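Feature request, filed as a ticket because there's no other form

It would be nice if the structure record came with a short human-readable summary line next to the tokens. Right now we just get the raw output. Example of a typical job, pasted below so the devs can see what we mean:
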Amino acid sequence: MSSGSVHALLAGFAGSVASVCAKLTVNAHYLTALCTGTLHEHGTVCAWLHVPLRVLCGLLLLTFNTIMWTFFSKALRHCSSSARVTVTVTASNFISCGVLGRLFFGEVHAALWWAGIALTLCGLFVLYGSSPQALQQDVVRKEK
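Raw output as currently delivered:
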């Protein structure tokens, strides 16, 4: 696997972690439920603890977005095709979001969601199956 592909996979994963942080930043319900479940005898602490946790999640959101764009840029630099990078990042992001959503929020996805993932992966395999040399030869033929 090329370094561009690894960077693209990491960009997709970082984007999905940023999505989790965004959901925790915007919706205090998850953090409050976590606090009351863990510190149930300290109800007054949970009344204000979600505020600094939301700020922390907001900072993590910005951090992981920065990491995602850094890896995306590196993937574009190391890959021969921007389409390959885009589809790889998208597939990695969707799959990571599905797994992280299940782990953190107990989300369950419908069969249609998984069918969309499967189609995205099929497109990814088609893009990675085409050889860059054949594409370059087509460009040379069109120029003549």
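Something like this underneath would help us a lot:
Residues 25 and 56 are 8 Å apart (CA to CA).
The radius of gyration is 20 Å.
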